[in-house]
UniProtKB/TrEMBL annotation:
It is found in: Cell membrane. Pfam families: LysE (PF01810). The keyword Transmembrane applies. It comes from Rhodococcus koreensis. One of its GO terms (cellular component) is plasma membrane. GO terms for molecular function: amino acid transmembrane transporter activity. Its main location: membrane. InterPro entries: LeuE-type. This is Threonine/homoserine/homoserine lactone efflux protein. The keyword Membrane applies. It is a multi-pass membrane protein. Keywords: Cell membrane, Membrane, Transmembrane, Transmembrane helix.
Amino acid sequence: MIDSVAVLGVAAIALGMVLTPGPNMLYLVSRSVTQGRAAGLVSLAGVALGFLCYLAAAALGISAVFSAVPQAYTALKLAGACYLGWLAWQALRPGGSAPFAPSRVLPRDSSARLFLMGLTTNLLNPKIAVMYLALIPQFVHPGAGPVWLQSLLLGSVQIVVALTVNALIVCVAGTVATFLSGRPVWLRAQKFVMGSVLGGLAIHLALDRARPAVV
Protein backbone atom coordinates (compact mmCIF):
# COMPACT_ATOMS: atom_id res chain seq x y z
CA MET A 1 0.00 0.00 0.00
CA ILE A 2 2.64 2.52 1.06
CA ASP A 3 6.37 2.06 0.62
CA SER A 4 9.08 2.31 3.26
CA VAL A 5 10.34 5.61 1.84
CA ALA A 6 7.02 7.30 2.59
CA VAL A 7 6.89 5.81 6.10
CA LEU A 8 10.46 6.84 6.90
CA GLY A 9 9.89 10.28 5.38
CA VAL A 10 6.83 10.96 7.53
CA ALA A 11 8.57 9.52 10.60
CA ALA A 12 11.60 11.77 10.07
CA ILE A 13 9.47 14.89 9.62
CA ALA A 14 7.31 13.96 12.61
CA LEU A 15 10.43 13.46 14.76
CA GLY A 16 11.92 16.77 13.65
CA MET A 17 8.72 18.65 14.38
CA VAL A 18 8.01 17.04 17.75
CA LEU A 19 11.55 17.85 18.89
CA THR A 20 11.18 21.53 18.02
CA PRO A 21 9.52 23.87 20.50
CA GLY A 22 5.90 24.67 19.85
CA PRO A 23 2.57 25.02 21.69
CA ASN A 24 2.30 21.29 22.47
CA MET A 25 5.80 20.98 23.92
CA LEU A 26 5.56 24.20 25.90
CA TYR A 27 2.21 23.21 27.40
CA LEU A 28 3.23 19.64 28.25
CA VAL A 29 6.53 20.72 29.79
CA SER A 30 4.94 23.51 31.84
CA ARG A 31 2.33 21.15 33.28
CA SER A 32 4.82 18.36 33.94
CA VAL A 33 7.26 20.69 35.71
CA THR A 34 4.68 22.47 37.87
CA GLN A 35 2.07 19.75 38.49
CA GLY A 36 3.91 16.45 38.01
CA ARG A 37 4.17 13.65 35.46
CA ALA A 38 0.59 12.47 35.96
CA ALA A 39 -0.72 15.90 34.95
CA GLY A 40 1.58 15.88 31.94
CA LEU A 41 0.31 12.48 30.82
CA VAL A 42 -3.34 13.54 31.20
CA SER A 43 -2.55 16.61 29.09
CA LEU A 44 -0.86 14.34 26.55
CA ALA A 45 -4.07 12.29 26.29
CA GLY A 46 -5.85 15.46 25.19
CA VAL A 47 -3.09 16.14 22.67
CA ALA A 48 -3.55 12.59 21.34
CA LEU A 49 -7.26 13.20 20.71
CA GLY A 50 -6.30 16.33 18.79
CA PHE A 51 -4.04 14.23 16.57
CA LEU A 52 -6.91 11.84 15.90
CA CYS A 53 -9.12 14.76 14.87
CA TYR A 54 -6.52 15.90 12.35
CA LEU A 55 -6.11 12.31 11.14
CA ALA A 56 -9.84 11.98 10.56
CA ALA A 57 -9.87 15.26 8.62
CA ALA A 58 -6.98 14.06 6.46
CA ALA A 59 -8.72 10.76 5.73
CA LEU A 60 -11.86 12.64 4.67
CA GLY A 61 -9.86 14.19 1.88
CA ILE A 62 -9.22 17.74 2.98
CA SER A 63 -5.97 17.67 0.99
CA ALA A 64 -8.13 17.35 -2.15
CA VAL A 65 -9.43 20.85 -1.46
CA PHE A 66 -5.89 22.18 -1.63
CA SER A 67 -5.29 20.28 -4.87
CA ALA A 68 -8.30 22.04 -6.36
CA VAL A 69 -7.32 25.42 -4.91
CA PRO A 70 -3.50 25.58 -5.09
CA GLN A 71 -3.48 29.21 -3.91
CA ALA A 72 -4.96 28.12 -0.58
CA TYR A 73 -2.33 25.38 -0.30
CA THR A 74 0.46 27.87 -0.97
CA ALA A 75 -0.99 30.32 1.55
CA LEU A 76 -1.11 27.60 4.21
CA LYS A 77 2.51 26.62 3.61
CA LEU A 78 3.68 30.23 3.74
CA ALA A 79 1.68 30.81 6.93
CA GLY A 80 3.24 27.71 8.42
CA ALA A 81 6.72 28.85 7.38
CA CYS A 82 6.14 32.25 8.98
CA TYR A 83 4.91 30.62 12.17
CA LEU A 84 7.94 28.32 12.39
CA GLY A 85 10.20 31.28 11.63
CA TRP A 86 8.60 33.23 14.46
CA LEU A 87 9.19 30.33 16.85
CA ALA A 88 12.82 30.20 15.69
CA TRP A 89 13.22 33.93 16.41
CA GLN A 90 11.64 33.52 19.83
CA ALA A 91 14.23 30.87 20.67
CA LEU A 92 17.26 32.63 19.17
CA ARG A 93 16.64 36.25 20.10
CA PRO A 94 18.38 37.62 23.21
CA GLY A 95 16.23 36.80 26.20
CA GLY A 96 14.15 34.33 24.20
CA SER A 97 12.42 31.45 25.94
CA ALA A 98 13.33 27.77 25.86
CA PRO A 99 10.94 24.87 26.50
CA PHE A 100 12.81 23.51 29.52
CA ALA A 101 13.72 26.86 31.06
CA PRO A 102 12.54 27.22 34.67
CA SER A 103 8.99 28.56 34.52
CA ARG A 104 6.71 30.40 36.86
CA VAL A 105 4.43 28.39 39.10
CA LEU A 106 1.09 27.61 37.46
CA PRO A 107 -2.20 26.95 39.27
CA ARG A 108 -3.16 23.29 39.67
CA ASP A 109 -5.89 22.18 37.28
CA SER A 110 -8.28 19.23 37.38
CA SER A 111 -7.74 16.22 35.13
CA ALA A 112 -10.69 17.23 32.95
CA ARG A 113 -9.28 20.70 32.45
CA LEU A 114 -5.80 19.35 31.74
CA PHE A 115 -7.24 17.01 29.09
CA LEU A 116 -9.32 19.76 27.49
CA MET A 117 -6.41 22.20 27.44
CA GLY A 118 -4.19 19.56 25.82
CA LEU A 119 -6.84 18.95 23.16
CA THR A 120 -7.38 22.66 22.51
CA THR A 121 -3.66 23.41 22.38
CA ASN A 122 -3.15 20.74 19.73
CA LEU A 123 -6.18 21.66 17.64
CA LEU A 124 -5.00 25.29 17.52
CA ASN A 125 -1.38 24.33 16.80
CA PRO A 126 -0.49 25.58 13.29
CA LYS A 127 2.52 23.26 13.19
CA ILE A 128 0.26 20.20 13.33
CA ALA A 129 -2.13 21.66 10.76
CA VAL A 130 0.80 22.14 8.38
CA MET A 131 1.94 18.57 9.08
CA TYR A 132 -1.39 17.03 8.06
CA LEU A 133 -2.51 19.41 5.34
CA ALA A 134 0.80 20.25 3.64
CA LEU A 135 3.49 17.69 4.49
CA ILE A 136 1.89 14.25 4.79
CA PRO A 137 -0.05 14.64 1.48
CA GLN A 138 3.31 14.89 -0.30
CA PHE A 139 3.95 11.22 0.55
CA VAL A 140 0.56 10.04 -0.73
CA HIS A 141 0.56 8.50 -4.22
CA PRO A 142 -2.83 7.84 -5.85
CA GLY A 143 -1.41 4.89 -7.79
CA ALA A 144 -0.47 3.09 -4.59
CA GLY A 145 -4.05 2.58 -3.42
CA PRO A 146 -6.92 4.51 -1.79
CA VAL A 147 -5.70 7.97 -0.78
CA TRP A 148 -7.80 7.96 2.41
CA LEU A 149 -6.18 4.70 3.56
CA GLN A 150 -2.69 5.98 2.83
CA SER A 151 -3.50 9.13 4.78
CA LEU A 152 -4.67 7.05 7.74
CA LEU A 153 -1.54 4.89 7.73
CA LEU A 154 0.91 7.77 7.34
CA GLY A 155 -0.97 9.84 9.90
CA SER A 156 -0.76 6.91 12.30
CA VAL A 157 3.02 6.90 11.88
CA GLN A 158 3.11 10.57 12.85
CA ILE A 159 0.92 9.96 15.89
CA VAL A 160 3.05 7.07 17.15
CA VAL A 161 6.24 9.12 16.81
CA ALA A 162 4.73 12.24 18.37
CA LEU A 163 3.13 10.47 21.33
CA THR A 164 6.23 8.41 22.07
CA VAL A 165 8.53 11.42 22.09
CA ASN A 166 6.07 13.60 24.01
CA ALA A 167 5.60 10.88 26.64
CA LEU A 168 9.37 10.78 27.13
CA ILE A 169 9.46 14.57 27.36
CA VAL A 170 6.73 14.53 30.03
CA CYS A 171 8.62 11.92 32.05
CA VAL A 172 11.95 13.77 32.02
CA ALA A 173 10.73 17.40 32.00
CA GLY A 174 11.25 18.00 35.71
CA THR A 175 14.72 16.45 35.71
CA VAL A 176 15.82 18.38 32.62
CA ALA A 177 14.49 21.69 33.97
CA THR A 178 16.40 21.16 37.23
CA PHE A 179 19.57 20.27 35.33
CA LEU A 180 19.39 23.31 33.05
CA SER A 181 18.48 25.78 35.79
CA GLY A 182 22.01 25.67 37.15
CA ARG A 183 23.76 25.47 33.78
CA PRO A 184 23.15 28.61 31.69
CA VAL A 185 25.57 27.48 28.96
CA TRP A 186 23.55 24.30 28.38
CA LEU A 187 20.34 26.31 28.37
CA ARG A 188 21.71 28.66 25.69
CA ALA A 189 22.91 25.67 23.65
CA GLN A 190 19.45 24.12 23.82
CA LYS A 191 17.86 27.34 22.60
CA PHE A 192 20.37 27.63 19.73
CA VAL A 193 19.80 24.05 18.52
CA MET A 194 16.01 24.34 18.75
CA GLY A 195 15.98 27.72 17.02
CA SER A 196 18.25 26.52 14.22
CA VAL A 197 16.11 23.46 13.52
CA LEU A 198 12.97 25.59 13.48
CA GLY A 199 14.56 28.07 11.11
CA GLY A 200 15.65 25.27 8.77
CA LEU A 201 12.13 23.83 8.71
CA ALA A 202 10.69 27.28 7.99
CA ILE A 203 13.02 27.82 5.02
CA HIS A 204 12.36 24.33 3.66
CA LEU A 205 8.60 24.78 3.91
CA ALA A 206 8.70 28.22 2.26
CA LEU A 207 10.82 27.05 -0.69
CA ASP A 208 9.19 23.66 -1.24
CA ARG A 209 7.22 23.52 -4.49
CA ALA A 210 5.51 20.15 -4.00
CA ARG A 211 1.75 19.86 -4.29
CA PRO A 212 -0.67 17.59 -2.38
CA ALA A 213 -1.80 14.40 -4.05
CA VAL A 214 -4.94 14.60 -6.15
CA VAL A 215 -7.58 12.06 -5.18
